[in-house]
From TrEMBL:
Belongs to the short-chain dehydrogenases/reductases (SDR) family. Pfam families: adh_short_C2. The keyword Oxidoreductase applies. This is Glucose-1-dehydrogenase. Transmembrane segments: none annotated. It comes from the Bacteria. The keyword Oxidoreductase applies. NCBIfam families: PRK07231.1, PRK08936.1. PANTHER family: OXIDOREDUCTASE, SHORT-CHAIN DEHYDROGENASE/REDUCTASE FAMILY (AFU_ORTHOLOGUE AFUA_5G02870) (PTHR43639), SHORT-CHAIN DEHYDROGENASE_REDUCTASE FAMILY PROTEIN (PTHR43639:SF1). One of its GO terms (biological process) is bile acid metabolic process. Keywords: Oxidoreductase. InterPro entries: NAD(P)-bd_dom_sf, Sc_DH/Rdtase_CS, SDR_fam. GO terms for molecular function: oxidoreductase activity.
Length: 261
């Protein structure tokens, strides 16, 4: 637990399941007040609200599409109207689909870029504008991926979006650093969430993935939530513009692990 997080107000996008729900639940354990954004899964968002309340925090579930301009405004207003301010904004929502690049419909490209990259811009813009106009030393956390660094055939749109998140994250971290606003990204590796449910249910695909993880385990959403809590807290007060990989070593060139090469 981080004492300074108590009563702080956070927005978590895509908080109805997976990593976003785990971050919301962890913020509840920190006794924060959380706006949990969902797009269509109200049940999952309500579940997250209950988890937070059971842990001593406050929460509200708010429907919004973060790829649309109005979405971020809705979420900011929910934080201000329900909890009286904003301290931490987590741009977590994201999606992916496998498709060979030569066959990729423009609509697939645009959907992934709109959610994974434009959504991060729109959320960050709303939070930064509030921080600047209220002279607040706020905190932004952007959900990137190991694929901001590792190419991923079949997912060119996804890799491009996360590569974009990397430099967007670094740029706004620099742009607002002298105001005391901190901006960091998290780069998860293989995490056990609904996005991967089908893949990890298949033994061959699960073992193929484990081959790429030096620590030989799939990460839990709570591993990522712990990183988010640390980045949100004052314990990371001199950290800005980084991507904190939470990946069991996946970015360490695992094919070299057993002395090969
Ligand atoms: P998930 O599919 O379980 O959850 C994604 C969430 O984003 C869902 O709640 C979904 O409703 C929400 N979302 C999607 N589009 C939205 C929109 N337009 N508006 C509002 N919400 C929207 O996925 P996850 O594994 O929990 O992934 C969360 C983030 O972590 C994503 O950005 C993903 O790219 C990233 N990530 C995940 C992994 C992993 O292994 N699970 C690895 C690297 C990065």
């Amino acid at each position: 637990m981080y004492a300074d997080l108590k009563n702080k107000v956070a927005v978590v996008t895509g908080g109805s399941k997976g990593i976003g729900q785990a971050i919301a639940a962890r913020f509840g354990q920190e006794h924060m007040s959380v706006v949990i954004n969902y797009r269509s899964d109200k049940t999952g968002a309500d579940e997250a609200v209950k988890m937070i309340e059971a842990n001593g925090g406050q929460a509200i579930a708010v429907q919004a599409d973060i790829s649309e301009e109005a979405g971020a405004t809705t979420l900011l207003n929910a934080a201000l109207n329900n909890f009286g301010g904003l301290d931490v904004w987590v741009n977590n929502a994201g999606m992916e689909n496998r498709v060979a690049t030569n066959e990729m419909p423009l609509a697939d490209w645009q959907r992934v870029l709109n959610i994974n990259l434009t959504g991060v811009f729109l959320g960050s813009r709303a939070a930064l504008d509030y921080f600047v106009k209220n002279d607040k030393q706020g905190n932004i956390i952007n959900m990137s991926s190991v694929h901001e660094q590792i190419p991923w055939p079949g997912f060119a749109h996804y890799a491009a979006s996360k590569g974009g998140v990397k430099l967007f994250n670094e740029t706004i971290a620099m742009e607002y650093a002298n105001r005391g606003v901190r901006v960091n990204a998290i780069g998860p590796g293989a995490i056990n969430t609904p996005i991967n449910a089908e893949k990890f249910a298949d033994k061959t695909q699960l073992n193929d993935t484990l081959e790429m993880v030096p620590m030989k385990r799939i990460g839990d959403p709570e591993d990522v939530a712990a990183a988010a809590a640390w980045l949100a807290s004052d314990q990371s007060s001199y950290v800005t513009g980084v991507t904190l990989f939470v990946d069991g070593g996946m970015t360490l060139y695992p094919s070299f692990q057993n002395g090969k090469g």
